[in-house]
Amino acid sequence: MHAFINKDAEEMEKKWLKDPRWKGIKRTYKAMDVVRLRGSRQIDHTLARLGAEKLYRLLKDETFIRSLGAETGSQAVQQVQAGLKAIYVSGWQVAGDMNESLETYPDQSLYPVLSVPKLIRRIYKALKRQDEIEFANGKLKRDWYVPIVADAEAGFGGPINTYELIKAMIEEGAAAVHLEDQLSSLKKCGHMGGKVLVPVSEFITKLITARFASDIMGVPIIIIARTDSFTANMVRSDSDAIDAKYLTGKRSPEGYYYYEPSMEQTVERGISFAPYSDMIWCETSMPDLGEAREFAAGIHEKFPGKWLAYNCSPSFNWKMHLDEKKMRTFQEKLAEMGYKFQFVTLAGFHAINASMFELANAYQKEGMRAYSRLQEKEFELEKLGYSAIKHQQFVGTGYFDEIMTAIHGDNISTKALKNSTEEHQFHAKKEKKKTKK
Q: Do 298 and 414 sit in the same domain of this protein?
């Protein structure tokens, strides 16, 4: 047994040293710690492993990756069908709607800790169904299993809480996770006030914990370190030398230490986190290329080529800051600075609310004319690859008809899609258009 453990540990250490994937990544623990604590069987977490490997290749080979926050499985399907190569799972969106408490919460880590992993599972189940439908029909048009980048908030507690959360995310398929340097018990959305940071060394411990959890699980997930220092003004302690030099000397009524936010301090925090993460994210309060350039230059001075992430947040009033021309090139200019992952965190929340309000507002005035306009829009979107207009087929009715046929043979009269209104009115509409041509 000991010989087996020693051999595995030696091979792991060699991989960490020689594999380009781990260049520049610092671990404070030994491979022997991983092998000893992972148990006697290494379980393969296929979705997370393949997703992490895929995302790493995309980040390495492409200029940058665009992503949108998905609030439901169906939204994730639409994103992949439209051509996006990665999906973002936001803690804010989980708090606001899709959490295990079935509550509506602000983004303050109020929801049950396993809510994000459960949404990751839901998304992959939705993508899996589309893969099954296309593959069964011999018309697999795309890779449905795109990588998921998931929000781990501030870890929901200390190191062992973070450890268990990251493991749960990997079990459900996460390819990447991000953690932020806020105090977990007071964690808030990056665009809220009242944020309190933890000392630099404390956050580094959480990044090390996340890497250790991924090594235990045997999955090379992408770890994103987010700093909220540019938009906060309090830190829990003066114990860290990096934090101490930026303190104002004043304390809050709760005893937290005030500091004056600056890009210099934010860059210094980012540099401290860089060896323990694959990517750095600086939370900002507006879409400002100057700030983005300053942060990127500061990080790359010490860590050339370090990947960066940028939150193209719905908390920004985009037209207040940028005109149409600047918006068209905003992400490309960020990419030139090294911002490889660019995402709209709350896209799902705003899309689902705006689209339903628009329909409801028109419907209560015009009745079925309003709904028919939505339907005609769906028919137009079919030309771009949209398929949910045929909702029975979309959720797998035809696929389960095929399962029934496999079980019973061709002599079956209870198929659900056959002779349905969808077959006669929606598939027929498509055939009618072909005939007219």
A: no
At 84, which amino acid appears? L
Active site residues: 189
Known binding-site residue numbers for substrate? 90-92, 190-191, 226, 311-315, 345
* 87 and 157 co-located in one domain: yes
Reading phi first (left if > 0) and then psi (alpha if -120 to 50, else beta), residue 83 is in: left
User: Into how many domains does the chain fold?
Assistant: 2
pLDDT tens across 16-43, in order? 999 999 999 999 999 999 999 999 999 9
Indicate the range of 142-156, 243-257, 291-305, 412-426 predicted with least confidence. 412-426
In total, the chain counts a number of residues equal to: 437
Residue ranges for the known binding site for Mg(2+) are: 151
pLDDT of 120-162, one tens digit each?
999 999 999 999 999 999 999 999 999 999 999 999 999 999 9
* Same-domain status, 421 and 290: no
Nearest by Cα to 189 from 125, 262, 105: 105
CA atoms within 13 A on the CB side of 314: 15
